[in-house]
Design a protein that fits this description.
325 residues, alpha+beta, Arc Repressor Mutant, subunit A, six-stranded antiparallel beta sheet, three-stranded antiparallel beta sheet
Length: 325
Amino acid sequence: MDVNNQVVIKTYQGQGLSYFDLIQSFSCVEMTSTPLTGDALIDIDVVDFGPLLIIKRENNRSSIDEIKFGKYTLACQIPMPDPEAIRDFLNLPGGDRYNPFQLVGATTQWLVPEHTPTYHIQADARWLKTVLGAQALKDYSELCKVDSRKAYDASVLFTVAAAVQHAVEVAKESTQSQVPISASHLNSLATDIWLPCIMSDLEEVRASTRQKILSKALDYIREHHSNPIRLTDLAGFVSTSVRNLQIVFKQELGVSPSRYIQQFRLHRFRHRLASSSSVSEAAYNSGFKHLGRLTEQYARVFSNYPSEDLLIASDFKLELGVGFE
């Protein structure tokens, strides 16, 4: 939880970094991902201040990240300081698991659009409490209860995004000049990021029916993917018709419900291969009851056969947020 004597900056641009590599490198979160098509590669810039971690990321494909934060990890997702980026950000799913502001120990699913740079910020809540105070962190929890992202003030998000961008620039200057960032300076950077959000007013805006349908459907798929999922059952769970369910997925995600379920299972299968004793075991636990064309599908997406990835963990080590636990 101590402030680093020198911030650590790591850049992975155009290096073909996959989610499979990345998710095994976080120590402060557990993350899996569902690219909406194929496999997703990611460009990231990491600024590690010690108790504060800022990740600027850009996907080459849209994906939904499922993230479980550690018991001391408080997190938020912020757009770039650009009016168009903020408008698009406010139209992403919100509420509960899809809220861009998350408390410690929370599990979220964040939609990350393709070719759209986004900041992911994680902080040690114990440290942040000393910086902002207990009441401020309590007020932060109100941001995590909002049903719709449209409830957030666009101008406040711009201010926060600019503060995050400034923190990244300060880190780069510190690295170049080899002059450490003081604890008080880091406290000031953190205050500029979180205080505007905490002090801003929230609008009374409810999530749209379309986004409620999508959120509930994604939750259902997440919880039941290892069992057969019929579209009639999924539509019934979210209280809509199969036709409308298909329209919602196409409008919000650009893929059909069936395609998303297939992608979800395929990527869970890949993660389970790393810790399973057999391909059949990993396939069954991921919802594939018949291997059939699974090997062909897997090879087409990951350019590898399932048997080649069995019990093979990535050797990529980023070791982010090691001080959070």
